[in-house]
Design a protein that fits this description.
About 35% of the residues lie in helices and about 15% in strands. The chain has an 8-stranded parallel beta sheet, sandwiched between helices. The protein is α/β, with parallel strands linked by helices and about 290 residues long.
Length: about 290
Amino acid sequence: MGCQFLGTSHKVGLDGARFVISPLPYDATASYGTGARFAPMRIIEASLQLELFDEELEESPFEAGIHTLPIPEMPVEPNKAKEICFDITKGLIEKGKVPVSIGGDHSVTIGIVEAISSSIQDFTLLQLDAHTDMRTEYQGTGFSHACVARQALNHCCVVQAGIRSSSKKEWDFLKAEGRLPVTASFINKDLTGATKQIIEGIKGPKVYITIDVDCLDPSVMPATGTPEPGGLDWFQLTYILREVANRFEIIGFDVVELAPIPGIHFPDYLCARLIYKMIGYIFFKKG
C-alpha cells in the first residue's frame, strides 16, 4: 500500500494542504513493550479503510487538504532523533501548516514542542496520557518518552489529562508546582467537570495536543507499550478533544505510542480514525 494518509486518490500537494502528516517511526526510548516504530505505516495503511464522511460533524474532513510526508530514516540516538523531529516540524510551521505527527514513542514530541516554541512563544501543551512523563531523566537520557512533559515545561504551559500512573517524585513535583493533572478517575466520574478543568488550565489562545494512546483504557487500546487500567473510552477522549478544539486554536497534534499487534487491526484503525476526526474538529470548528 502507498504511504499517503487516506490513499493516493485523495493526495494533496504540500503547498495546497492545510494539514501535513509527518510519520516518525522511532521507539528507541521504549522501556516496556516495543514496536511503536511500526505504527506510522500501520496507521496510514488503516486510513485507507476510513469513510471520508464524518457522521458526528456531518462533514468530510479530507476537504481541508491533507498531505503526507515521506517516512524518514530515524537514528537510534535520542538527541539526534529529536533534531529530526525538530527540523521537520519547524519547516511545516514556517510554511503555515498544521503538523500532524504519527509516532513512534512519546519522545518524538520533545523535538516537536521545541520546534513550535522556536516560532510560537505563547501556547499550551495539552497532554492526554496515562503517565505523567515528568522525569528529568530516564534510562540515561533526558530525551526519553518518560521525560516529555518535563522537557516541555522549558517551553510552554503543560496541562495533563487522563493520568493514572506516576512516580512519587513526579507527583510531589507537580503538587509543589500547582500542576496536578486531571486524572482518569476524575474524567470517569465527571466528564463535563473534568473537561472544564482542562479548559481552565489552558493559557492563551493556542494549543498543541499530544495524544499518547495509552490514555485510553486497554480494553479500547491494547496495542501500546505501557498500558494502564482505568483509562478513557473513545467518547470521553473525543468529547475532550472537540471541546478544546472549539475553544482554542489547535496549532498541531500528534498521536504516539501505538505498538501494533500482528494480526489485530482495530487499534491501528482507531488511531487513523482519531487523526481524521481531530482534523475534522479543527477544520470544522464550532464555536
